[in-house]
């Protein structure tokens, strides 16, 4: 078992403090859901764990077991098993999806994987995700639909086999069928060696991939943690009740 442990994390962009003391412990084998109104720091939290340079950590720690994640480069974090499926995947003209994925896979290996093995694995996963096989030969995300970009993030996750997958609104832009396929792919990853943190606004994803832990992030803090009942409450009541707790929404 591995543990991703976040303690009293404070994060700023420029002068503005976005995260104001996040505490979160994620063990492999667990599935965590993070919900919360827009603009309250969910993407910031996932991006900081991955090491996005636009954010400054002003206080607090992130560890995987005894490894200090904040001292690692993005590359080292990826090798340590962290994966971020982005809310808005980048288009990279000039780099084919297949070349990008192969470079990413090889960066995790001592010896480069053989082209034959890589292609076989790629094709299997593309078929499982019911993606158009031509996407692999196109430039990364360029002209991909919203749903294709999201499936491409999941394809990358399947190839990299991370320990801690951070999935940021992976269900946005997916139609009902695509959502089932993606949920199924996440479900297949479930093991004692895998943890997932899913940010989403919608109950539907969490019905298909039931979380073991649910957190509500408001104004840079986790104001509530619980089980599936929290998802139902938000689905029925929105976030109005948050204000009654005296918490200021950003
Ligand atoms: P969420 O994912 O919960 O919708 P985000 O983490 O994306 O929220 O954003 C948190 C806050 O950070 C928002 O108020 C947003 O406006 C602010 N923010 C994001 N990027 C920047 C930036 N480059 N400069 C200043 N503020 C930013
Ligand atoms: Mg948002
Ligand atoms: Mg976001």
From TrEMBL:
GO molecular function: ATP binding; ATP hydrolysis activity
UniProt keyword Metal-binding present: no
Family statement drawn from the similarity comment of this UniProt entry: Belongs to the ABC transporter superfamily. Ycf16 family.
Family annotation (PANTHER family): ABC TRANSPORTER I FAMILY MEMBER 6, CHLOROPLASTIC
Name this protein carries in UniProt: Fe-S cluster assembly ATP-binding protein
Species annotation: Thomasclavelia cocleata
Phylogenetic placement of the source organism: Bacteria, Bacillati, Bacillota, Erysipelotrichia, Erysipelotrichales
Keyword Plastid recorded: no
Keywords associated with the record: ATP-binding, Nucleotide-binding
Annotated InterPro entries: ABC_transporter-like_ATP-bd, FeS-cluster_ATPase_SufC, P-loop_NTPase
